[in-house]
Write a structure and sequence with these properties.
Aminopeptidase, binds coenzyme A
């Protein structure tokens, strides 16, 4: 399978906006997330939020499957040594063929290459399937929090980038 993840330039972001929104659409529906209540959800993300994140140093990646844009993810250095993986998403028509797994592995490699010690993610605490998926990739559950504007608890997971399994 030929998958290539490229770090996006500011000029490429607009092309990925609809990919992020479409990839998260089912999540918004499943959780019945209203736009005004959940600015963090990828399904409602606006160009200005993407640009703001880009300009404050968030690294954004487009993933191309056989040359066609199929997924998106972003990595942010949130504390020295700690990267956060966010908005990892694969378009529905490209799912369940290992693209998401390759993207997670690529994110792990990128975080490690840039000196990361830990890679963290935040996701809906009741999404058992997704939690299991990240567990299969070596992440461990580190806690649950409630965030303003998000009507569901958020689970935090982390991966030790230099742990015995890596
Ligand atoms: C989670 C996601 C990135 C997986 O992408 P993918 O390319 O299908 O991943 P893989 O092919 O490597 O793995 C498939 C596995 O993902 C797991 N999975 C997790 N969440 C899933 C979902 N919402 N739908 C389908 N499979 C899901 C299943 O275990 C599936 O295994 P199966 O095919 O045996 O059922 C993709 O489903 C997605 O974009 N979901 C919506 C956005 C999202 O929730 N992102 C996570 C933000 S933290």
């Amino acid at each position: 399978m030929s998958l290539k993840c490229i770090q996006l330039t500011e000029g490429q972001l607009l092309g990925y906006l609809s990919i992020i929104r479409r990839s998260f659409q089912a999540v918004a529906k499943e959780y019945n997330l209203p736009e005004e209540n959940c600015l963090a959800s990828g399904s409602f993300i606006k160009m200005d939020q993407l640009l703001t994140d880009f300009r404050r140093g968030v690294r954004m990646y487009g993933c191309l499957y056989e040359g066609t844009a199929a997924g998106y993810m972003q990595l942010e250095l949130t504390e020295p040594g700690r990267f956060t993986l966010d908005k990892l998403a694969v378009l529905p028509e490209f799912r369940r063929q290992g693209i998401g797994t390759q993207m997670v592995n690529h994110a792990i490699d990128l975080a490690r290459t840039h000196g990361g010690i830990e890679l963290t993610i935040a996701l809906f605490a009741n999404d058992d399937r997704l939690i299991q998926w990240y567990t299969n990739h070596g992440f461990v559950h580190t806690g649950v929090v409630n965030r303003p504007g998000i009507p569901f608890p958020i689970a935090h997971m982390a991966l030790d980038l230099h742990g015995p399994s890596r």
